């Protein structure tokens, strides 16, 4: 809407010397009064009226201009000179202006031109295609404008009919139809190379695990980042659905892009790729099948503390060193070979050793890219992804894994949850421990957890709850204090809460052990072990041996009448090269003082299993309506790295331990 300042004038352009004059001299005789004529005209968009048609010289005249509904004043002229009237009021869609000449000294011809306030903006130019017209208002801003994509060219912006660039904040100064023309720049080969995607991830984005949060990185600012997908297998993306990505600058000049793929059908096979539409630069394509609508058994891998910062050492010179030669990639090879029907991956944190080292993330993630989408990675931040350690204060995990998480200072990581058939999976952020040296999870996170569990308890399909965090609330206690004293503080906070919320299983890492407790509850009457202050006791220590899918597992047996079933705390060694060197199996057995709480405990130290082979570890977890089964395996990573193809990989894996909970 056009707004004008009120103006009063004694005349226009010093025209007081033109026209008839009043005569006051004696020679003139009797005084003669001079009268001026006022003529007002307007077009069909409004009306104009003057306070009088005849005005005595020196008297004022006021013009009232009324723009009818849907119109506004385009221009107002007096004797050919444009003037600016005062906006008086708006009523019932009409806009009323006022202009006063305080001292009339000539004949006046006033003309008001009105125009429609609604402006239609259309788009044209190379590569624009069919873009719907945009409605706007004269005097307002252009607002959000489309960003077209033309293969091989970078969109430089929109130009109006006058050849001026306009953007969303530019003011609309034209009435009627406005045509904007796209302007393009050529994309160099150097830029295309820098737009090749890397460090890609895919995670379940939403609480229903139906959408995918996709992330990738580039070495220069993306032009038109996008994810493209279509049903079935193939290489022709000509009719693929395209989803735009959102890019921002990250570390060391890199850019990080995220996008969300939603609206996918249950149990449907898709082919997907991601990259830059304008540069026509794409990463690898991946074929995957979405989750079933009805899930009877949730099946997932648990990895933790991969902590890569180097590739496998001491490789045979006859075997070419490849990007796949990370410990975690070789561990995954064995895991997927043994359990090809897994649904997703849960990672307990410390994925890399240096969270701010982009090369470490690239080496790690590129080495397992082949599992993208088929095995979405649900990640929690470890202390090596926290700004107090190696991340130099930069956000890491939430820039590499895209989930719909509460925005509560997520520089320390994300907390979130999702449902998968009978499983409710909760990812917690243990990096709160370092915030101000508190050693506990933040109040906002605990409040969210209570609300989340209250909601899950109302879902009749949910039978089990598994929580994952990096630093756990319980660790083996030794005669000598460990470096993880804050975990005892965490335990005092969280074990009673897990007990109250009836969490069935807590997965954690950080300590590089392989251990599993009995089902534990908080009991104020319990005597803490040594000085850790954890008042816990097992609900049961009774187990029976069962063979499950060829592996012998311990099935917990509860006393008759058990009401509180307790929580099992499980830690899976290390899934990367960072074997613990502080403790060996014999040392653990010798110094362990709280075996009363542990059903099983083994060191993750290199050399404890099959000397000189160095095993990584992972757990495979299955959750059905009436049973939750955890089995843990070790992988001879150096041995399996020598194997070409996927035949015989199981020979390099070993079953360590397993347990089952039943309801």
Structural description of this entry:
It is built from 8 helices and 41 strands. It has an 8-stranded mixed beta sheet with strand order 27-26-25-39-40-41-36-35. Strands 28-29-30-31-37-32-38 form a 7-stranded mixed beta sheet, covered by helices on one side. Strand 35 (543-548) and strand 36 form a beta hairpin. It is elongated, with a radius of gyration of 37 Å. Mean pLDDT is 85; it is low at 1-30, 314-323, 479-483, 580-588 and 605-612.
**What is the terminal separation in angstroms?**
68 Å
Strand content: 35-45%
Contiguous runs where pLDDT drops below 50 for at least 5 residues:
1-30, 314-323, 479-483, 580-588, 605-612
Rounded mean pLDDT is 85
Question: In which order are the strands of the major sheet placed?
Answer: 27-26-25-39-40-41-36-35
The main β sheet shows up as: 8 strands, mixed
């Amino acid at each position: 809407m056009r707004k004008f300042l009120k103006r009063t004038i004694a005349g226009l352009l010093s025209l007081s010397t033109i026209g008839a004059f009043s005569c006051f001299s004696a020679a003139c005789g009797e005084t003669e009064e001079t009268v001026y004529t006022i003529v007002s005209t307007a077009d069909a968009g409004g009306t104009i009226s003057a306070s009088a048609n005849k005005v005595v010289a020196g008297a004022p005249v006021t013009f009232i201009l009324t723009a009818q509904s849907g119109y506004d004043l385009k221009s107002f002229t007096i004797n050919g000179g444009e003037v600016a009237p005062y906006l008086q009021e708006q009523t019932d869609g009409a806009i009323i202006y006022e202009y006063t000449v305080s001292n009339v000294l000539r004949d006046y011809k006033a003309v008001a031109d009105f125009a429609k306030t609604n402006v239609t903006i259309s788009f044209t130019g190379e590569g624009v295609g069919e873009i719907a017209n945009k409605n706007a208002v004269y005097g307002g801003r252009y607002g959000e404008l489309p960003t077209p994509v033309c293969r091989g060219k970078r969109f430089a912006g929109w130009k109006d009919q006058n050849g001026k660039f306009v953007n969303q904040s530019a003011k609309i100064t034209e009435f009627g139809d406005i045509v904007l023309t796209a302007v393009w720049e050529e994309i160099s080969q150097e830029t295309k190379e820098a737009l090749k995607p890397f460090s890609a991830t895919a995670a379940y984005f939403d609480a229903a695990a139906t959408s995918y949060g996709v992330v990738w990185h580039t070495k220069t600012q993306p032009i038109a980042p996008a994810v493209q997908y279509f049903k079935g297998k193939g290489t022709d993306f000509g009719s693929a659905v395209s989803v735009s990505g959102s890019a921002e600058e990250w570390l060391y000049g890199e850019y990080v892009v995220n996008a969300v793929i939603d609206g996918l059908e249950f149990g449907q096979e898709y082919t997907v790729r991601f990259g830059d539409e304008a540069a026509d630069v794409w990463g690898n394509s991946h074929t995957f099948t979405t989750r079933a609508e009805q899930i009877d058994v949730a099946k997932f891998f648990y990895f933790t503390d991969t902590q890569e910062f180097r590739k496998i050492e001491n490789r045979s010179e006859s075997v070419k060193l490849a990007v796949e030669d990370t410990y975690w990639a070789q561990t995954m090879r064995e895991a997927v070979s043994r359990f090809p029907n897994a649904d997703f991956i849960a990672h307990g944190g410390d994925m890399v050793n240096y969270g701010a080292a982009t090369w470490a993330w690239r080496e790690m993630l590129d080495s397992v890219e082949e599992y993208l989408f088929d095995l979405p990675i649900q990640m929690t931040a470890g202390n090596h992804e926290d700004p107090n350690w190696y991340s130099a204060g930069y956000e890491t995990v939430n820039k590499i894994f895209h989930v719909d998480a509460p925005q509560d200072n997520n520089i320390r990581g994300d907390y979130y949850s999702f449902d998968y058939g009978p499983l409710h999976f909760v990812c917690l952020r243990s990096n709160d421990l370092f915030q101000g040296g508190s050693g506990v999870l933040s109040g906002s996170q605990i409040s969210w957890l209570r609300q989340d569990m209250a909601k899950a308890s109302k879902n009749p399909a949910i039978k089990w709850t598994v929580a994952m965090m990096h630093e756990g609330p319980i660790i083996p206690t030794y005669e000598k204090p460990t470096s993880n004293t804050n975990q005892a503080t965490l335990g005092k906070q969280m074990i009673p809460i897990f007990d109250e919320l009836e969490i069935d299983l807590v997965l954690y890492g950080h300590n590089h052990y392989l251990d599993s407790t009995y089902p534990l509850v908080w009991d104020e009457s319990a005597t803490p072990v040594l000085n850790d202050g954890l008042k816990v006791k097992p609900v049961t220590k009774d187990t029976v041996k069962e063979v499950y899918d060829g592996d012998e597992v311990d099935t917990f047996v509860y006393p008759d009448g058990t009401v509180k079933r307790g929580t099992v705390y499980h830690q899976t060694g290390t899934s990367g090269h960072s074997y613990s060197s502080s403790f060996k199996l014999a040392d653990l057995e010798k110094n362990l003082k709280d075996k009363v709480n542990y059903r099983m405990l083994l060191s993750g130290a290199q050399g404890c299993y099959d000397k000189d082979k160095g095993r990584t570890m992972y757990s495979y977890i299955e959750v059905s309506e009436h049973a939750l089964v955890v089995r843990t395996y070790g992988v001879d990573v150096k041995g399996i790295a020598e194997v070409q193809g996927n035949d015989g990989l199981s020979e390099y894996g070993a079953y360590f331990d397993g347990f089952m909970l039943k309801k």
